[in-house]
TrEMBL record:
Record's keyword annotation contains Nuclease: no
GO CC terms: ATP-binding cassette (ABC) transporter complex; periplasmic space
Gene: choX
UniProt protein name: Choline ABC transporter substrate-binding protein
Ranges for domain ABC-type glycine betaine transport system substrate-binding: 31-275
Organism, as annotated: Rhizobium fabae
InterPro entries: ABC_choline_sub-bd, ABC_Gly_betaine_transp_sub-bd
GO molecular function: choline binding; transmembrane transporter activity
Highest taxon above the source species: Bacteria
Segments forming a coiled coil: none
NCBIfam families: ABC_choline_bnd (TIGR03414)
Length: 312
């Protein structure tokens, strides 16, 4: 009899060990405040995050803000999550918040990115292959460099101020990602000179015939601004909301996936969450890694819940 009891207790203990341990986040974690600066890559990845979090029972919200405002808001605890720290392009923005510990890195969510000046291939063929070549063609460029949203072009502004590049008197035209690319297409139609802020992942790399300029290591880093993208949170958030933290640690992407997802935004005209949903439905196998060890807000297995919610 005693032996049977021992065996029964042992079986129960082994079953408990074999089962995954699920623990719900506190109710205070239900609302998740996110932000992105209007860049299509970050709009798409944020859309994926919003879709997953909603399917898990959370209430995520995303705001469109400038980079400087995003960091100040994370420091002041007005935001919780930011999926778009480009390193090294945003090093200067992040530096004071890294030093005071108010913003924390979670995980590198993308490798193989790049970010630096670009020109149409016909401009490159005409002799503009390096940052130092820009000063040779001031009239053709109308002394203009085309950037994206105000607050996101500091490295381009720094290049203009660098006396060794001979760009004194040049203007940085700030508008938006869409506005900048519209100018690139307009100039390309007429084979006019234009230099602009280019990066990958982005559909511009397949839709436009462009080349990246050498010589920008001082501003963007080596290998054409070879970059990584990381997820960041406000100080203490990982400890306050460990289940969301687990999802954020799992949520990584690749360049091809983001190129396709950004195409849903730019070519198909989908909203970020619609693009995120389409990407997830197209590649549901990614859910296994993203939701490993993740629960719903109320502590139920996350993978099952998300598949049911998204009808996968």
């Amino acid at each position: 009899m005693i032996q049977h009891l021992k065996t029964g207790v042992l079986s129960i203990l082994l079953s408990a060990v074999a089962m995954p341990a699920f623990a719900a986040d506190p109710e205070s974690c239900k609302v998740i405040r996110m932000a992105e600066p209007g860049w299509n890559d970050l709009a798409f990845t944020t859309g994926v995050g919003l879709t997953l979090l909603k399917a898990l029972g959370y209430e995520p919200r995303s705001s469109l803000l400038g980079i400087d405002v995003i960091y100040l808001s994370l420091k002041n605890k007005d935001l919780d999550v930011f999926l778009g720290y480009w390193d090294p392009a945003m090093v200067a923005y992040y530096k004071p918040y890294k030093e005071d510990g108010s913003v924390e890195n979670v995980v590198t969510n993308l490798k193989g990115a790049k970010y630096t000046f670009a020109v149409p291939t016909y401009v490159w063929d005409a002799g503009v292959k390096d940052f130092a070549d820009l000063q040779k063609f001031p009239d053709q460029f109308e002394k203009k460099l085309y950037g994206i949203e105000p607050g996101s072009n500091q490295l381009m502004l720094d290049a203009v101020q660098d006396q060794t590049l001979g760009l004194s008197g040049w203007d940085v035209v700030e508008s938006s990602e869409q506005g900048m690319l519209a100018e690139v297409k307009r100039h390309a139609k007429n084979k006019a000179f234009i230099v602009f802020q280019g990066w990958a992942p982005h559909p511009m790399n397949t839709e436009l015939d462009i080349k990246y300029l050498t010589g920008g290591d001082k501003f963007y880093g080596p290998d054409f601004g070879a970059a990584t993208v990381s997820t960041q949170v406000r100080k203490g958030y990982l400890q306050e909301c460990p289940n969301v933290a687990k999802l954020l640690q799992n949520l990584t992407f690749d360049v091809d996936f983001e190129n396709r997802g950004m195409g849903y935004l730019m070519a198909d005209g989908l909203a970020p969450e619609e693009a995120g949903l389409k990407a997830i439905v197209s590649e549901p196998r990614r859910l296994d890694a993203w939701l490993d060890g993740v629960t719903t807000l109320d502590g139920k297995p996350g993978l099952e819940a998300v598949k049911a919610k998204l009808a996968l």
